[in-house]
Design goal:
- By secondary structure, the chain is mostly beta strands.
- Helices cover 3% and strands 43% of the residues.
- Strands 1, 4, 5, 6, 7, 37, 38, 39, 40, 41 and 42 form an eleven-stranded mixed sheet that branches.
- Strand 18 and strand 19 form a beta hairpin.
- It is elongated and about 110 Å long.
């Protein structure tokens, strides 16, 4: 069975990993995961064990985003997080989803036009579910970018919990009291790190000079963040870990950045709100070309029409709702000449194209789905409460349903992806303005295909010192497996911790992770176009091995008997020896117990011995040294 999203446990807007707790009393120092039953102790996302007793990344057609949608509310400077799962409420009414959190992207300045003040708009979601949102800043300030974590957080006030926005009254809407305030405590006019009171917010940074107008945001295959400034015609590259500038400004000639996507080869494709398309090579930060389509564009998306990767641009002028660009031939086509214009655009894994349509003064509002050749598959009109003129995004969710952002109605509308059946609307904040990759569907499917498996193991002992993860797998060219961990003494504390950097296979990390519980996360990646998946056959985690104490050596002619107290959880022991006065110990054998006999000694020589315990292939520090002189026979 392929796992798209399984074992989701949603609590206070947080996703908690599946757990595997010890059932008995004691101290378990290691655990190996290798069977279907082992892997099912955790959470599988875009990975499967269709081949028994191994995990592998789903096929490209089965790579989906997590079931959340991120919408920027430009008229109140907030970002809303929606659970897109269809559900039936207590009254028996089918609901398209619900809002589960809302974050301030700037100081609370009340409500205003979506073209005034900070006015957040563009969003981008990475392979881990973290979201980046750009404040455009019509107020003359520098553009700014905020990172909001999918899970975990930064316990800035050290109260042992992550203080974050959540739907406390469970009414499916975030009320004003459920938003964590963002206050300018020091009066310097910029939200400093210490002022980010919602602890799910990782950072907020300025990008570029004042007045730049941040209108483009996307994520590269390496996870780097790309921000485009409309007024300055420049792009910047940010570090996703802390928002620091890695490159830029990169001038892009006649292109005015108005949205972007990055493909699996690292080519950034940029819209312009004008008549052209940008191609920027993010591997060397150079402009490859600016291509003229002769019309006015708006939204942008990647897709595969069955013959290869294509770039799609929503068109607000001309006779076709979208243009299709061939990156090899460098040519545009307009396959759907039906006299309909559009603003938002998305594609699905089959190459179908979805557009939202709203030209001020026009008569059509709703969503249309086209085949890769431009034929209309379905067209669905506006839903109740969402009939006003200005629409923005057409965004696919984890179920391949499509959401249309209704700017003037402060709502988002959901349509069934297969036939356009209207599934309902949800209220947002003031002036929702998102039309970029607000679910992560484009990034996960067309930039870096991503999935993960995570599991929590209970050692049964508080303060356990973890030291190693070993795994066996297969990583074909263009794929990868990365392992991270975090540890704590309770499930609540675990959610406060950040994951480690990527571990090296079998390399000790003793001293950096302690706690009764350890969460292991395996992230699987594959470049678009690569067919073979990365495969994980097994994974073992272990605590730091305990140092042996009390090693004793007893000599007889021609041999030495070594004994030592067994250490809890050790799988084996390594025995080392050197001549007294020698420069270095050399390993002479191994033992599964606290006993070893050395029959390779020479009478009348003096030897020194030390022992290491081993857990999960990681060795402890050396034991005490035992010195002994071999007697001659009598």
């Amino acid at each position: 069975m392929r796992h798209l999203v399984s074992n989701w446990l949603i609590k206070c807007g947080c996703i908690l990993a599946g757990t595997a707790f010890s059932s008995g009393v004691g101290f378990a120092q290691s655990k190996t995961y290798t069977t279907n039953a082992d892997f099912d102790l955790g959470t599988l996302f875009n990975v499967n064990h269709d081949t028994p007793d191994q995990l592998e990344l789903n096929p490209a057609a089965d790579i989906v985003p997590q079931p959340f949608l991120w919408i920027a509310n430009a008229g109140e400077d907030t970002e809303s997080k929606f659970d897109t799962t269809q559900f039936t409420d207590s009254g028996g009414v089918s609901r398209p989803g619900k809002e589960i959190a809302r974050y301030r992207t700037w100081f609370n300045g009340g409500t205003h036009s979506p073209f005034a003040g900070p006015a957040p708009s563009r969003t981008a979601v990475d392979g881990e579910g973290n979201v980046y949102v750009a404040n455009r800043h019509f107020d003359g300030r520098s553009a700014s970018v905020m990172k909001i974590l999918f899970t975990g957080g930064i316990d800035r006030n050290n109260n042992g919990v992550i203080d974050t926005s959540t739907d406390l009254n469970n009414n499916g809407v975030i009320d004003p009291a459920e938003i964590i305030p963002l206050v300018d405590l020091n009066g310097n006019g910029f939200p400093d790190q210490a002022e980010l009171a919602d602890e799910r917010v990782a950072w907020l940074v300025r990008v570029g000079p004042t007045g730049g107008l941040g209108r483009s945001l996307s994520i590269g295959p390496d996870g780097s963040i790309w921000v485009g400034l409309f007024n300055n015609r420049q792009y910047y590259k940010l570090d996703p870990a802390n928002g620091s500038i890695l490159a830029g400004p990169i001038s892009v000639g006649g292109n005015t950045p108005y949205g972007s996507v990055v493909d699996g080869t690292g080519r950034l494709w940029g819209a312009s709100l004008s008549n052209n398309l940008l191609e920027l090579d993010t591997t060397n930060n150079t402009v490859v070309g600016v291509y003229n389509h002769g019309r006015q564009d708006y939204g942008i998306a990647l897709g595969n029409d069955g013959t290869g990767l294509r770039v799609y641009q929503a068109m607000v002028s001309g006779s076709s709702p979208f243009a299709k660009f061939d990156p090899v031939l460098k040519t545009f086509t307009f396959p759907a000449a039906i006299g309909l214009n559009s603003l938002g655009i998305s594609t699905d894994p089959s190459g179908n194209v979805y557009v939202s349509s709203s030209i001020p003064g026009g008569s059509y509002r709703g969503c249309t789905k086209f085949s890769p050749t431009g034929a209309v598959i379905w067209s669905s009109g506006p839903q109740a409460g969402a009939t006003a003129g200005n629409q923005r995004g057409a965004i696919l969710d984890a179920n391949s349903d499509v959401w249309v952002v209704n700017l003037d109605n402060n709502r988002i509308s959901k349509y069934r992806g297969t036939d356009g059946f209207p599934l309902g609307t949800l209220p947002t904040g003031i002036s929702p303005y998102t039309y970029s990759d607000a679910s992560g569907q484009q990034f996960l499917g067309l930039t870096t295909q991503t999935g993960n498996w995570s599991v929590v193991f209970d050692s049964g002992r508080a303060g356990a010192a973890w030291g190693s993860v070993n795994w066996n797998g297969l990583e074909p060219t263009g794929t990868g497996i990365a392992i991270q961990v975090r540890a704590a003494d309770s499930q609540a504390d675990l959610q406060v911790q950040n994951f480690s950097s990527n571990l090296e296979n079998g390399v000790s990390f003793c001293g950096s992770q302690t706690g009764r519980l350890i969460e292991i996360k395996a992230t699987f990646t594959r470049e678009p176009g690569v067919l073979d998946p990365p495969v994980l056959y097994d994974l073992s985690v272990g605590t730091c091995p305990l140092t042996v104490s009390g090693l004793v050596a007893r000599a007889k002619p021609g041999k030495v008997n070594l004994v030592w107290p067994a250490t809890a959880g050790s799988s084996s022991y390594r025995i080392f020896r050197k001549l007294s006065g020698g420069s270095a110990f050399a390993q002479i054998g191994t033992s599964l117990t606290g006993v070893y006999v050395d029959n390779t000694v020479i009478n009348s020589q003096t030897y020194q011995y030390t022992v290491q315990s081993v857990v999960n292939q990681i060795a402890s520090p050396d034991s005490n040294i035992a010195t002994v002189t071999i007697p001659n026979p009598r």
